[in-house]
């Protein structure tokens, strides 16, 4: 027994040597075989079990490694293997479990703190993550300091992008392309697109320099690494309205076929947003990239939510009503307070001509979520206007208390009431808005409101109300508004002029009294350049027009005896062979078939053909035996290419211009001569 035990110990020692050598060489597959042999000797060897877990992690077998840990919980306690267990859970996307494992560890090592920062980032707890990385950078001094700073800048960029937090200056030196890229993302979150583009260009330059130093890195590898930088550049172009450039860059990245499914999903989603309701077939292809395996672990919650919203909109644009309703209902269940799912459902109902149902859906949401009622009611008003119910739309807009007295809302309501010719309601809108500002300005004196006395908005509303009343004949009401304006600013000549104009129609005596307050012409320094005014485009046009009218009047005064110059008529073109001595044919404008002398086509004439007819016959002398072709026969119309063709210098007039003399008689004589020729010839 002692000999057997000694042999086993010797074998185990040899195996441990093998494990150590393979570990140093990075050959974890062979090391795992040796560890398994050691566990056959002693299945509860804690060190061997730890080595097995490490070998499995190095080989990427995280699920199997976690299985070993959970199987040997009595031996592998949380104090012994907490980091390995949390890391396996993190890599298997069990983020909540990884957090619990880290928090339950009795001792927080540097490795656990590093992993803790990664877990917090994945859980989007950016404030806690920022604090964790600051603590790590402060208390660590090793070769991984640059990586920690990169992670810290990534947290700041995420806060700026997703939480709209103004990032603080961390004082990080942007010596690497990762730091430049994260800085650019933070600038995009702040809306500083031009600065962000410059940062991305710098990041691209640093990336090329860094990777080109490695001889093993190919150009394809460099382009693959630059894909995420180019994707962010394209996004900036899209935000700037340069959609064509953005689309071209997006498609170039897709052609590279990057392995990052998250990058592909984001690019595909952005292309879909550019396409909108156009090029839906391309969008349906691109949406498949957003459904790739593992996308949900690569993107933030807001990114995934945006992709789902666009899927629902694409379903609506492609007339997939059921799919659109299903997706929007799922989104609403996930985020009950979010506006977009309800707006998508309402849009789908409107496409189905169910406007009343859409308005009811929006009204229910507004009642359940008062905080978002303003945007929902604006949409409801738009639907009512589309249906032609302008008055109902006005009632909905007036029910939005937080916007009721805003200048934009007042303007919209007045315009809509004017369209319906409801002037009293329009004036009431002005009155309520002016009173609202007056009340709050009164409170300002007691320090209860942010508005200042005689605010520009208040004065602007009074002026617009006065102009509106003057336009619609409410002069007395307009006068009270103008007097209020003039009291607040007695030096306003424009308001005084309007007031005098209004009084001149109602109380001329009062207008005369007020006109005394107008400045005299001597005190007014207009500083008008008369020469420049006379030489302006408008003045030149007026002078030319006046001169033209004056010239016309003078011509009329001189008398109408002068004859206007007649325009010369262009001479008509004559045929080349036209003879002025010969009277033109009066029937020359008629088609040949409708002329009185048209004889029709001659039948019975066959073209001379060789090899036709009965055997032994010949067609050589047929033309000689034809009596109609004798010299005594009267000539018919000339045939092209025949012996009777007329030269270009002859005076023969074609039938279009001259009627042949005695045409009917010629036809009769021709028939008689044919008969005689037949008798004498045979």
TrEMBL record:
Subcellular location: Cytoplasm; Endoplasmic reticulum
Segments of skewed composition (Basic residues): 564-574, 666-682
Stretches forming TPR repeats: 227-260
Keyword Cell inner membrane recorded: no
Coiled-coil region list: 95-150
GO cellular component term of the entry, any: signal recognition particle, endoplasmic reticulum targeting
Domain of life of the native organism: Eukaryota
A biological process term (GO) from this entry: SRP-dependent cotranslational protein targeting to membrane
Domain Signal recognition particle SRP72 subunit RNA-binding: 544-600
Alphabetic keyword roster: Coiled coil, Cytoplasm, Endoplasmic reticulum, Repeat, Ribonucleoprotein, Signal recognition particle, TPR repeat
Start-end of Basic and acidic residues biased regions: 576-597
Stored Pfam families: SRP72, SRP_TPR_like, TPR_8
Extent of Low complexity compositional bias: 611-645
Region (Disordered): 544-682
The keyword Repeat is assigned to this record: yes
Single GO MF annotation: ribosome binding
Record-linked PANTHER family: SIGNAL RECOGNITION PARTICLE 72, SIGNAL RECOGNITION PARTICLE SUBUNIT SRP72
Family the UniProt entry places it in: Belongs to the SRP72 family.
Protein name, as recorded: Signal recognition particle subunit SRP72
Annotated organism of origin: Cnemophilus loriae (Loria's bird-of-paradise)
């Amino acid at each position: 027994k002692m000999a057997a035990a000694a042999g086993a110990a010797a074998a185990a020692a040899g195996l441990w040597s093998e494990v150590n050598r393979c570990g140093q060489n990075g050959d974890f597959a062979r090391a795992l075989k040796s560890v398994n042999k050691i566990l056959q000797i002693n299945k509860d060897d804690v060190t061997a079990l730890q080595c097995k877990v490490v070998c499995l992690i190095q080989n990427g077998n995280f699920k199997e490694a976690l299985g070993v840990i959970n199987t040997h919980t009595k031996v592998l306690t949380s104090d012994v293997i907490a980091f390995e267990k949390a890391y396996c859970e993190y890599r298997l996307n069990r983020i909540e479990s990884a957090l619990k494992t880290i928090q339950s560890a009795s001792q927080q090592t540097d490795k656990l703190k590093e992993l803790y920062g990664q877990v917090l980032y994945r859980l989007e707890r950016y404030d806690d993550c920022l604090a964790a990385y600051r603590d790590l950078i402060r208390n660590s001094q090793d070769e991984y300091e640059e990586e920690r700073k990169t992670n810290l800048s990534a947290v700041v960029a995420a806060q700026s992008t997703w939480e709209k937090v103004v990032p603080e200056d961390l004082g990080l030196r942007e010596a690497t392309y990762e730091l430049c890229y994260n800085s650019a993302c933070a600038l995009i979150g702040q809306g500083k697109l031009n600065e962000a583009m410059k940062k991305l260009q710098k990041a691209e330059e640093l990336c090329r320099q860094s990777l080109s130093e490695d001889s093993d890195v190919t150009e394809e590898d460099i382009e693959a690494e630059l894909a995420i930088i180019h994707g962010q550049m394209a996004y900036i172009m899209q935000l700037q309205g340069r959609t064509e450039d953005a689309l071209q860059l997006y498609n170039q990245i897709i052609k590279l076929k990057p392995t990052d499914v998250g990058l592909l999903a984001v690019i595909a989603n952005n292309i879909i947003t550019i396409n909108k309701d156009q090029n839906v077939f391309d969008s349906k292809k691109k949406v498949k990239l957003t459904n790739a395996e593992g996308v949900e672990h690569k993107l933030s919650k807001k990114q995934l939510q945006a992709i789902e919203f666009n899927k629902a909109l694409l379903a609506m644009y492609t007339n997939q009503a059921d799919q659109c309703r299903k997706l929007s209902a799922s989104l609403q269940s996930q985020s009950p307070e979010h506006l977009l799912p309800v707006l998508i459902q309402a849009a789908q109902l409107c496409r189905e001509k169910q406007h009343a149902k859409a308005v009811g859906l929006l009204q229910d949401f507004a009642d359940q979520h008062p905080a978002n009622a303003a945007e929902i009611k604006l949409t409801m008003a738009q639907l009512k206007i589309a249906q032609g119910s302008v008055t109902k739309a006005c009632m909905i807009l007036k029910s939005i208390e937080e916007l009721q007295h805003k200048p934009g809302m007042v303007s919209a309501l007045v315009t809509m009431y004017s369209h319906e010719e409801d002037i009293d309601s329009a004036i009431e809108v002005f009155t309520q808005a002016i009173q609202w500002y007056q009340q709050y300005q009164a409170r300002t004196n007691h320090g209860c409101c942010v508005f200042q006395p005689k605010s520009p908005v208040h004065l602007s509303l009074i002026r617009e109300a006065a102009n509106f009343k003057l336009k619609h004949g409410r002069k007395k009401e307009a006068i009270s508004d103008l007097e209020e304006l003039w009291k607040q600013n007695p030096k306003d000549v424009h308001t005084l002029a309007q007031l005098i104009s209004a009084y001149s129609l109602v109380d001329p005596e009062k207008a005369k009294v007020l006109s005394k307050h107008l400045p005299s012409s001597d005190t007014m320094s207009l500083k008008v350049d008369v020469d420049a005014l006379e030489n302006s485009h408008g003045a030149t046009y007026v002078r030319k027009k006046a001169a033209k009218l004056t010239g016309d009047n003078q011509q009329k005064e001189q008398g109408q005896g002068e004859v206007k110059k007649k325009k010369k008529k262009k001479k008509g073109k004559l045929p080349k062979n036209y003879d002025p001595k010969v009277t033109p044919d009066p029937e020359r404008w008629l088609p040949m078939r409708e002329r009185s002398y048209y004889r029709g086509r001659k039948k019975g004439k066959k073209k001379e053909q060789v090899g036709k007819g009965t055997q032994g016959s010949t067609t050589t002398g047929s033309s000689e035996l034809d009596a109609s072709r004798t010299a005594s026969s009267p000539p018919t119309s000339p045939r092209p290419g025949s012996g009777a063709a007329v030269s270009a210098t002859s005076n023969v007039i074609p039938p279009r211009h001259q009627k042949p003399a005695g045409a009917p008689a010629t036809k009769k004589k021709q028939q008689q001569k044919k008969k005689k020729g037949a008798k004498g010839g045979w």
